[in-house]
Design a protein that fits this description.
This protein is of the alpha/beta class. 38% of the residues lie in helices and 17% in strands. It is globular and about 45 Å long.
Length: 269
């Protein structure tokens, strides 16, 4: 399995990250994409550092849409340098969040456009966070040529119509533990609708733990729960769902360019 979106640099993992990684590996998670996107560029820096020490962890770099209004030109210069590092496999999470609007919409849109341009310059796919903003997000991704490098709508929470808009220009949809929630029928419909070669699974750890772990700290090992439900929704075996989502993640993030290398994990708890 591939956990295509997790925040392993989160403070909540500081005390037991080696054990968290061991549980993921024991559960069959072979690769984890650590999303280096927080309130500032420190998340990008720490995610890149982690990817440099763990052979099955890769990084993305960005700043969350909530906080882009505070970005400086120095931040952009740092991210432009990080974007080209070998263990960096994506740009983001970037995107639009109109639910909270911690940054003004115009600031979010301007930063989103700039992040897509950075992705194209660096040859990396775009990892997008979209909440209550599907029409604007799809238009920006289309207008800025995101299809040239590909991308994924992480933690997809839209319905079939929203899914169709992204799929039409080649984007992937990633499903999180929300897929298991009782009030997620529209998301399950989108998971059933999407072509097999466009679906991913993720945890968004430490957030959004799937049932039966809802309310607990999420971690990459729990991606198996979401994968199992995705298989049920699509009427396929878990093994096939595993193979499909793994192949998709490897293709999107070009993980074939970064083969797994056996690592000394004697430090893990």
């Amino acid at each position: 399995m591939v956990d295509s979106h997790c925040h392993l640099d989160s403070e909540t993992f500081r005390s037991d990250l080696p054990a968290v990684l061991d549980r993921a590996r024991s559960a069959g998670v072979e690769r984890m994409i650590c999303i280096g996107s927080g309130s500032d560029i420190r998340s990008a820096l720490s995610s890149v550092a982690l990817a440099g020490t763990e052979s099955d962890v890769y990084a993305t770099v960005g700043v969350h849409p909530h906080d882009v209004a505070r970005m400086t030109e120095s931040d952009w210069e740092t991210l432009e340098g990080l974007a080209r590092l070998p263990r960096v496999v994506g740009i983001g999470e970037t995107g639009l969040d109109y639910h909270y609007e911690h940054s003004a919409r115009d600031a979010q849109q301007a930063a989103f456009r700039r992040f897509v341009r950075l992705a194209r310059q660096a040859g990396r796919p775009v990892v997008s966070h979209v909440r209550d903003a599907h029409a604007d997000a799809a238009e920006i991704l289309r207008a800025e040529g995101a299809s040239e490098v590909g991308g994924v709508i992480h933690c997809f929470t839209g319905g079939v119509d929203d899914a169709r808009g992204y799929l039409d220009f080649g984007h992937y949809l990633s499903f999180s533990g929300i897929l298991t929630f009782k009030n997620a029928d529209h998301i399950r419909a989108a998971a059933r609708f999407a072509p097999a070669d466009r679906v991913l699974v993720e945890t968004d750890a430490p957030y959004l733990a799937p049932i039966p772990y809802r309310g607990q700290r999420n971690e990459p090992a729990f991606v198996a729960r979401t994968l199992g439900l995705l298989a049920e929704i699509r009427g396929i075996s878990v093994a096939d769902a595993d193979r499909i989502t793994t192949e998709n993640a490897c293709r999107l993030f070009r993980l074939g360019d970064h083969p797994l290398v056996p690592a000394d994990r004697t430090h893990s708890g």
